[in-house]
């Protein structure tokens, strides 16, 4: 428990973090990644370049400082962070490194006059408390994953057993344990962590599991990103018979039990977690509205599979919309997602469960639309892939 005096000091730094949080975290990451190469694989360099990682950490630090009196008010943020950490295998020994860099960044960016010894001491204590909270929850998750039938802890070697193009830019990889053992089930919507060494450099990534568990293998479906080191490696160099290392499934964006109609609204490669959710929901008999947004037919993955499924299951209503259609493309609509379009495609009564995933501006638009259409907030679920951050209103 943090002392009253330390809590007050941490809270007094909130205005500084609100204005200067990003400068601080940019500096923090520079120190961390330059001086501690052992933690580099935990960070996707693309998120550093885009500034997303810095914004996410600045937001996390700010939320933490604001809620230091009542950490339970942080809501789902802690769970999201724990899941992301677990899937990348963050370990207790990483925390002191981050703590040292954070305190150094606070001192060097704010200056010794503002970041006095008392401020650093209070933040040191506060960080220690947070680190304890996270490492405890993460160890619990590691133990739970290992205790499941077929479960494991740490990296496990998997062999690529099949590789299938799903669109011009998305390819599926079927992965079987190299030890011939079973794999645990996962909750639809979860992702795995993948560890690869490319030309001597280790990288770790999360990929949504795009097929329901069958006890023997997992499937991930990866979009080739123009500058993506790992996605290009997987597309171009990882072939059938090759080995990849996986960390066990994790993730809190999961399909909850319910008998209400379900809407899965996805864009681009955001379709992947919705595929396992769709498969799982079929057995429940509930109505399913599968709504997908892609740039054009060439980028539209899993179209035939969803069409086949909806031809066989009356409960599925499948719609798709293209933002940059090619001349021979046929879609139910053209353009970006809009409130009026969703109003027409969702059931008239709004007592439905909605799960949505895609690029951030897409999700902001879906969130706003669902809110004005009267879908209860507690029934709207979404996830960012990448550093946790807030959907701007
Ligand atoms: N489990 C998860 O949380 C996962 C999340 N994702 C996320 O899904 C996103 C998918 O991106 P891409 O495949 O690259 O998409 P994309 O660039 O191919 O775009 C797909 C569609 O998104 C919509 N869209 C794009 N920009 C928009 C805007 N400004 N406003 C409204 N709609 C817009 C359009 O309808 C477009 O056709 C990524 O951000 C990725 O991080 C992907 C996989 C899993």
Write a short abstract of this structure.
The chain has helices spanning 4-12, 14-35, 45-50, 52-66, 76-88, 94-110, 117-147, 229-237, 271-282, 303-312, 339-345, 360-373; strands at 156-165, 170-177, 191-198, 201-208, 218-223, 243-250, 262-267, 288-294, 316-322, 333-334, 353-357, 380-382. It is α/β, with parallel strands linked by helices and 393 residues long. It folds into three domains: 4-147, Globins (Globin-like); 156-250, Elongation Factor Tu (Ef-tu), domain 3, CATH 2.40.30.10; 262-382, 3-Layer(aba) Sandwich (Rossmann fold).
What does the model show?
The protein has 393 residues and is of the alpha/beta class. It has helices at residues 4-12, 14-35, 45-50, 52-66, 76-88, 94-110, 117-147, 229-237, 271-282, 303-312, 339-345, 360-373, and strands spanning 156-165, 170-177, 191-198, 201-208, 218-223, 243-250, 262-267, 288-294, 316-322, 333-334, 353-357, 380-382. A 6-stranded antiparallel beta sheet has the order 4-3-6-1-2-5, sandwiched between helices. A 6-stranded parallel beta sheet has the order 10-9-8-7-11-12, with helices on both faces. The radius of gyration is 22 Å and the shape is globular. α2 packs across α6 (94-110) and α11 packs across α12. 42% of the residues lie in helices and 20% in strands. The two termini are 34 Å apart. The structure holds 1,4-dihydronicotinamide adenine dinucleotide (NAI). Residues 191, 208, 223, 267-270, 272-273, 293-295, 299, 323, 336-337, 357-359, 361-362, 365, 383-386 line the site of 1,4-dihydronicotinamide adenine dinucleotide. It catalyses: 2 nitric oxide + NADPH + 2 O2 = 2 nitrate + NADP(+) + H(+); 2 nitric oxide + NADH + 2 O2 = 2 nitrate + NAD(+) + H(+). One of its GO terms (molecular function) is metal ion binding.
């Amino acid at each position: 428990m943090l002392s009253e005096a330390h809590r007050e000091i941490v809270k007094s730094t909130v205005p500084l973090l609100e204005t200067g949080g990003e400068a601080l975290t940019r500096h923090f990451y520079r120190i961390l990644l330059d001086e501690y190469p052992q933690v580099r694989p935990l960070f996707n360099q693309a998120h550093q370049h885009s500034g997303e990682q810095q914004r996410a950490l600045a937001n996390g630090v700010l939320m933490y400082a604001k809620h230091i009196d009542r950490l339970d008010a942080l809501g789902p943020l802690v769970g999201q962070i724990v899941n992301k950490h677990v899937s990348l295998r963050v370990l207790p020994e990483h925390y002191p490194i981050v703590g040292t860099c954070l305190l150094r960044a606070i001192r060097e960016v704010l200056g010794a006059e503002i970041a006095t010894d008392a401020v650093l001491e209070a933040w040191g204590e506060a960080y220690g408390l947070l680190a304890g909270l996270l490492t405890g929850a993460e160890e619990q998750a590691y133990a739970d994953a290992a205790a499941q039938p077929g479960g494991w802890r740490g990296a496990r070697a998997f062999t690529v057993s099949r590789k299938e193009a799903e669109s011009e830019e998305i390819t599926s990889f079927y992965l079987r344990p190299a030890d011939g053992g079973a794999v645990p089930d996962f909750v639809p919507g979860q992702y795995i962590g993948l560890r690869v060494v490319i030309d001597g450099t280790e990288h770790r990534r999360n990929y949504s599991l795009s097929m329901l568990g069958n006890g023997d293998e997992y499937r991930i479906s990866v979009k080739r990103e123009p500058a993506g080191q790992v996605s290009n490696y997987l597309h171009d160099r990882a072939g059938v018979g090759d080995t990849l290392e996986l960390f066990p499934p994790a993730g809190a964006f999961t399909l909850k039990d319910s008998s209400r109609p379900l809407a899965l609204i996805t864009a681009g490669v955001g379709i992947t977690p919705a595929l396992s959710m769709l498969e799982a929901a079929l057995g429940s008999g509930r109505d399913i509205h599968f709504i997908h947004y892609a740039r054009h037919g060439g980028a539209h993955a899993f179209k035939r599979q969803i069409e086949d499924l909806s031809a066989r299951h009356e409960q599925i209503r499948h719609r798709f919309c293209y933002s940059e259609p090619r001349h021979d493309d046929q879609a139910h609509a053209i353009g970006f997602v809009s409130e009026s379009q969703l109003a027409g495609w969702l059931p008239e009564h709004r007592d439905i469960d909605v799960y949505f995933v895609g690029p951030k501006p897409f999700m902001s638009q879906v969130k706003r639309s669902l809110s004005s259409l009267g879908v209860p907030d507690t029934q709207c679920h979404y996830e960012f892939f990448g550093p946790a951050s807030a959907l701007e209103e």
